[in-house]
Amino acid sequence: MRALAWHGKHDVRVDTVDDPEIVNPRDCIIKVTATAICGSDLHLYDGYIPTMQAGDILGHEFMGEVVEVGAKSTLKKGQKVVVPFTIACGSCYHCGKHQYSACDNGLPADNQDIAQELYGQPMSGLFGYSHMTGGYAGGQAEYVRVPFSDVGPIVIPDGVEDEKVLFLSDILPTGWMAAENAQIEPGDTVAVWGCGPVGLFAVQSAFLMGAERVIAIDHFPHRLELAKKFGAETINYEESAVYEALMVMTGGIGPDAVIDSVGLEAHGFFVDNVLDQIKASTFLGTDRAHSIRQAIIACRKGGRVSMPAVYGGFIDKFPLGALMEKGLTLKTGQTHVQHYMPALLNAIMEGKIDTTFLISHRMDLEDAPKGYDMFKNNQNEVTKVVLKPGFN
Amino acid sequence: MTDENTGHTDGAPPSTWKKGDALAESAIPHENGREIVARAVTINRPVREVFAYFRDFANLPTFMENVERIDILGDSRSHWLVKAPGGKTVEWDAVVTEEVTDAVIAWTCEPGADVANSGRVEFSNAGARGTVVTATIVYDPPGGVVGKLIAKMFQREPAIQARRDLRRFKQLMETGEIATAAMNRKQREEEMA
After folding, report:
1. Considering CB atoms only, which of A26, A107, A137 is closest to B177?
2. CB-closest option in B163, B170, B188 to A105
3. Residues of chain A with C-beta less than 8 angstroms from the C-beta of B170
4. Do A89 and B188 touch (CB under 8 A)?
5. Do A37 and A141 reside in the same domain of the chain?
């Protein structure tokens, strides 16, 4: 089959590789019909994520048609499914609590060592996202082996366009969980840092959860325009000082809840530092953790901080004092995708959530390297690239 | 509170590393080259099921990566064939030295083993969380320190191996399979080779 493989920094290629097969009884194989490049794929593209190997197949946002099932899969050939980016078993203690991204069994035993050293306990597996998260082949390919297919993939009703439901795989539930973690109360003002796909879905979700005002913060004019479309007020941080603007906009109180959907943004999560850190337990400074610092300082007293943004290592100058003194609540985590998929599929079907507005480019899988380049170098206009095998 | 017998001020097991603690070190008889490995894992299945699977030693190679085969020689005796560095194998006969149903199983090798070793696995009911399995493996690495270094290079070092084996045991009991990123059966076979 053809698949987008990582070969090094800014070097991704569409290669011909072996087709995947059923390996375990709960597996299925899907023929990919649509897959997307995620903002977090750029961290891999820029070479900032450790434990990548040349030839690794990328992609964790994908959907397709079931073409083969293992003996214990509950899916049927021909069904259309969206696959969650988190690989979770459904039978461990954490899955029982719907904490799917904390699944005990999604990672192969050997791959659990790194996360155990770095974080204390290993987390779930992820598709196409380095060997620290399992080394699973990703979805920017013609076919994918999907483990635990009896608990992960969600079946899509006939006749629904791929593009409407594709983002159930990651960014829609991630934006939704970000808003949920902000524990929004009716009448709240919520500030969202970063108007990428997750931030834009967080804006929509916050309104659906009862926020009266949402203030979106970014520096790309086009992305701020999209946020405005959903009713958000905006701050362009290249034009205005964010803290001062927020204080004026909230009458000196500060937002009731703040959401950081920027994160490490491919800056400061250096491979060598992280590896050194594992060995030496010294501290590394990620000087681009600006958004979370700013969010904590701006948040009103007793407010809530939600952090869907991806952080991998350590940050310094973290305003722990502000967090404590103001009595803030901080909630974060990789998304428990499986938990949110059914309700969000309903919300899409009922027209409550707009998903397709985000897509700026559609390309053939063969053109994926061009897609990465465009996504990296023109973030203002390229909001989301969807890849389709056989599109041309 | 300090335990008068051990001098410990915490409740952690004696085999855990303790700063400046002579007792923990004395529990590891390394002066003659022996190593002790203790690991605990919680498995979300009833203790009866977890114990029964483990007690049938013929099952152990399904999750113990280095154990190629175990032949059952009788109710308490078994023959183990185990992978060693450099494509070699080592063998021994083991005999069960202690067995309390749903609570403990211990074994030791009989004289003439290629690698002297013994193991003790405890099972305890953890209520809604399932079963806590604590494994202690004592072994005498072949060729002393050099043998251990070689073993480590091949990641066959028992401390690493015990940790990974227990994770695989948990996966098998909880999910019915062992997680793998292999894309196809050929890759899976290479992983297990």
Report:
1. A26
2. B170
3. 104-105
4. no
5. yes
- Chain B residues closer than 8 Å to A15 by CB: none
CATH of residue A328: 3.40.50.720
Give the residue on A whose Cα is nearest the Cα of B131: A93
CB contacts of B187 in chain A (<8 Å) are 23
CB nearest B180 (choices: A19, A23, A91): A23
What does each C-alpha distance from A242 to A22, A214, A247, A321 come to in angstroms? 51, 14, 9, 20
Q: What is the CATH number of domain B33-192?
A: 3.30.530.20
Instruction: Find out whether A293 and A317 touch, Cβ atoms under 8 Å.
Output: yes
Element (H, E) at B136: strand B131-139
Nearest residue to B136 via CA among B46, B41, B45: B41
Q: Are A342 and A316 members of one domain?
A: no
Q: Do A339 and A192 fall into the same domain? A: no
The complex's ipTM?
Answer: 0.89
Q: Which chain A residues touch B165 with a CB distance below 8 Å?
A: 109
A150 and A252 co-located in one domain: no
Cβ–Cβ below 8 Å for B164 and A107: no
| CA distance to partner chain A, nearest, from residue B42 (Å) | 9
Q: Are B34 and B138 in contact (CB under 8 A)?
A: yes
Predicted TM-score (pTM) of this structure? 0.89
Strands A154-155 and A125-126, sheet pairing: unpaired
- The pLDDT tens digits along chain A (392 residues) read 999 999 999 999 999 999 999 999 999 999 999 999 998 899 899 887 888 999 999 999 999 999 999 999 999 999 999 999 999 999 999 999 999 999 999 999 999 988 888 889 999 999 999 999 999 999 999 999 999 999 999 999 999 999 999 999 999 999 999 999 999 999 999 999 999 999 999 999 999 999 999 999 999 999 999 999 999 999 998 889 899 999 999 999 999 999 999 866 533 343 444 444 444 433 344 435 688 889 999 999 999 999 998 877 777 778 999 999 999 999 999 999 999 999 999 999 999 999 999 999 999 999 999 999 999 999 889 999 999 999 98
Nearest-CA distance B168 → chain A (Å): 6
A110/B183 Cβ within 8 A:
no
d(Cα A9, Cα A354) in Å, to the nearest integer? 34
> What is the domain partition of chain B in residue ranges?
1-32, 33-192
Contact present, A122 and B179 (Cβ < 8 Å): no
